[in-house]
Design brief:
OB fold (Dihydrolipoamide Acetyltransferase, E2P), 7 helices, OB-fold nucleic acid binding domain protein, NA-bd_OB-fold, alpha+beta
Amino acid sequence: MSDKKVIRDKRTVAQKRKDEKRGWVVDETPELRRSVEQEIQGKVDTNHPDSCRASMTLEQEEEAMARDIEIARTRARVGEHIETREAGSRRAVQKTKQQARARFDERAAGVDRWRDPERDDPREMLSQSDLATVNRQAARLEEKLDGWTRAAISRRLAERVADGRGMTDAVVDVYDELDQAAGTVIPIEKVGEVNRGEVSIEGTVVQLWEPRSSAIQNVGLIEDESGRTKFTTWAKSEAPLVEEGDHIVLRNVAKNWYEGRCSVAVTSWSRIEFPERGRWWE
């Protein structure tokens, strides 16, 4: 015997009609609604041109195919010349910098004639023997000057020789100029003598102290063959941590004076290099 109970509506047909007229009947039929995915897919199927070609006439289908072929030909013809917004912005910024540099060189040509962008390379004005001597001296200075290429050094030497300076005087002038130029690694003993606010030095971390403030990441002493000086790494610089015994290069560190002593500080504009690791972090 089955234990299932069946619920039936025991009203007569006349009673049902009377209830419908009085508005007592509630429609219990569930409302069917499409899901979000179905709504999206429906719009895609309706609006996408490729989905409607089955209902197109032959003329409309040929026009759609011709449009696709023309788009493919245009893309193939243009190819790599299509630039993204980022690439276009970089190109515009680079062009603006070059134009500003050219305008600055034109103004500077009133003081130094070799800054004129229209002037020929001074090395082309030298004789073969003078040019050979300039190249030999440039190769020798390249070994002593950090961060300077042989081509840049030879151009500066050629400028002075073309101006009538002797080779010995030209070599001394160029060495003094580039040895104290921004970005060149200088001996620690010369940090206080250089007439600029930022310097680059190289040495070994010989001692570290416990920072007295959370704003300081590292503080200690760096030493090379000429001397030692205090260095401070600010936390906001996001520079890598150093340890005692590390051989490092501090690029573009700021000079500070306190009670007649000069020290350096690693800021957000500075860079710490680890030559022995073969890599660097900004």
